[in-house]
Design a protein that fits this description.
single chain; alpha/beta; 7-stranded parallel sheet; 4-stranded antiparallel sheet; 9 helices; about 20% helix; elongated
Length: about 450
C-alpha cells in the first residue's frame, strides 16, 4: 500500500499534482507567457521612509526606491562606521560592528538590506517590531530562550525542524537587544551570545503560479489506476476557498499559520493551485478537473497579501509533514537563494529525511540563469520549472545551476503557462474564464 501511494505521488507529482498543472485547455490571454507572480505590496507613503536596523541604527530613504540613504546611529553608537552598497537585490547599509558576524555566518545579511526591508513592509511606519528567526546550538535551547527573554524579545513560534524559533523584538529596544545577543569588544561584535547559533530575518517569500493534464501524460496514469486515491497533498499557500464547486468536500483540514485573521483565501492563488492538484471540475462539467482528482487535500495558509513569512512557511512545513503526514507538500512560492543553507532549505531537507514526504517546489519566476529560488534550491526538493504548450522553456522560468555550488536545479519541468483553474470567491488574480475559473 505504501509503495502504491508513493508511486501515485511520483507519477502524478512530477507532472502537476505539485503546483505546476492545469485542469484543462487554457483560454488565450494578453501578453502570453507573462509570469503571474504576486508582487510585494508597496508602502502607502510617498515621503521619507525610516527603517530601524536590528543594531538600533535608523536608516532613512527619501522614497521606497531611493538609491541613497541617511544614517542616524543608535544611542551610544555615534562612532560606528557604516558601509553602504547598492546591489542587485537592494541597498545595503551595514554597521562596522555587524560585519564580522555576517562574514562568519552568524547573522543574516538581509537584516541590513534597507530597500528589501521596506518591500517586506518591515519599515518603522508599518510595524514597531522586527520579526526574526533564531536558531540555537545543540543542547542550548534553555540558554537561547533565556538570552532572548533577557533581551526583551518574544518567542512567537517554535520551529523544531531547524532547531529554532520565530521571534519578535521591539524596535525601540533594538540597541539593547543587539548588545544582549552578541558579544565582542573594542566596538566590534564577534559572536552571538547565550547559545544562539544564528539570527535570521524572518523574510517574505513571494507566490509563483505555474500549467496541463494531457501534456504530462495524466490520462495514461489514470488508465493505470493512478488518480491520487489514498494520497494526501498539503497545499502551503494563501489558503483555499473550500466552498468553490470544484473543491467542496476535497479539503480535509485548513489551518492558518499566517498573520491573517483566518484560513480563507483572499488572494486566489491557493485556490487555483489546489484545484490544479485535485479539483473535481464540477463547475465545468469535468473540463477543468485537476490532475489527481481523488487525492485528499489539506490547506496550510502561510501567505498574506504582502507575501509569505518564512516562519509561517516553516510552521506549515512541519505541520504538513509531521502532524498531517502528507505524502506530498506543494510549495508554489519562492525567494532569492543565497550560498549556504537557509532555514527553509534546511527544513525541507530535515523533514524529508525524517518523514519521507515529497516536497514539490516552484523553481521561481526570475527570467534568468542561476536564479532558482529557495526552498526549491534544497537538495531534497523536487524543483519544478515551467514550459509552455510546446514543451519549450517559459521565458520567465528560473533556470539553473544552483547558486553557490552549480548543482543541477530545477529537477524537472512541467506546463506552467496559461493554466485554467478555480477562481477563489471575491478574488481578482488572473484573467476570468467564466464565473468559476481564471487563467
Amino acid at each position: 500500500m505504501l509503495l502504491t501511494r508513493r508511486l501515485t505521488a511520483v507519477v502524478l507529482g512530477v507532472g502537476l499534482v505539485l503546483g505546476t498543472g492545469s485542469a484543462g485547455a487554457a483560454a488565450p490571454v494578453p501578453a502570453a507567457g507573462q509570469p503571474p507572480t504576486a508582487e510585494p505590496a508597496r508602502p502607502a507613503q510617498t515621503g521619507p521612509i525610516t527603517v530601524t536596523l536590528r543594531t538600533g541604527d535608523r536608516i532613512t530613504l527619501a522614497s521606497a526606491d531611493e538609491r541613497t540613504a541617511s544614517v542616524q546611529p543608535g544611542k551610544g553608537r555615534e562612532k560606528i562606521q557604516f558601509a553602504t552598497s547598492r546591489e542587485s537585490d537592494g541597498l545595503y547599509v551595514i554597521p562596522r560592528d555587524a560585519a564580522p558576524l555576517i562574514r562568519s555566518g552568524q547573522l543574516d545579511r538581509r537584516l541590513f538590506n534597507v530597500t528589501g526591508l521596506v518591500q517586506a513592509r518591515y519599515h518603522d511606519s508599518a510595524r514597531d517590531n522586527l520579526p526574526l528567526i533564531v536558531t540555537h546550538r545543540p543542547g542550548a535551547v534553555a540558554s537561547t530562550t533565556g538570552t532572548l527573554r533577557g533581551a526583551g524579545a518574544r518567542v512567537t513560534r517554535e520551529l523544531p525542524a531547524i532547531g529554532g524559533a520565530a521571534v519578535t523584538a521591539a524596535k525601540d529596544h533594538a540597541g539593547a537587544f543587539w548588545a544582549s545577543v552578541t558579544t565582542g569588544r573594542d566596538g566590534v561584535r564577534t559572536a552571538t551570545a547565550g547559545g544562539i547559533e544564528k539570527i535570521w530575518l524572518d523574510g517574505k517569500r513571494q507566490l509563483t503560479l505555474d500549467h496541463s493534464v494531457p501534456q504530462i501524460g495524466a490520462p495514461a496514469a489514470y488508465q493505470a489506476g493512478y488518480t491520487g486515491n489514498g494520497v494526501t497533498v498539503a497545499v502551503l499557500d494563501t489558503g483555499v476557498d473550500v466552498n468553490h464547486p470544484d473543491l467542496v468536500g476535497r479539503v480535509a483540514e485548513a489551518r492558518n499559520f499566517s498573520e491573517a485573521a483566518d484560513a480563507e483565501d483572499l488572494i486566489g492563488h491557493g485556490t487555483h493551485v489546489a484545484s490544479i492538484i485535485a479539483g473535481s471540475g464540477a463547475a465545468s462539467g469535468g473540463k477543468y478537473r485537476g490532475v489527481a482528482p481523488d487525492a485528499t487535500l489539506v490547506s496550510g495558509k502561510v501567505c498574506e497579501d504582502s507575501g509569505c513569512s518564512e516562519s509561517a512557511i516553516l510552521a506549515g512545513l512541519q505541520w504538513a509533514a509531521v502532524e498531517k503526514r502528507a505524502d506530498v507538500v506543494n510549495v508554489s512560492l519562492s525567494g532569492t537563494d543565497q550560498p549556504g543553507i537557509d532555514p527553509l532549505e534546511e527544513a525541507v531537507n530535515v523533514l524529508t529525511a525524517q518523514t519521507g514526504t515529497l516536497f514539490v517546489v516552484a523553481a521561481g519566476n526570475n527570467y534568468s540563469d542561476a536564479s532558482v529560488g529557495s526552498p526549491g534550491s534544497a537538495d531534497a526538493a523536487l524543483t519544478v520549472g515551467a514550459v509552455d504548450r510546446d514543451d519549450k522553456l517559459a521565458d520567465f522560468s528560473s533556470r539553473g545551476p544552483r547558486v553557490g555550488d552549480d548543482a543541477v536545479k530545477p529537477d524537472i519541468t512541467a506546463p506552467g503557462v496559461e493554466i485554467v483553474a478555480a477562481k477563489g470567491a471575491g478574488t481578482e488574480l488572473g484573467a476570468p474564464v467564466g464565473e468559476h475559473y481564471v487563467t
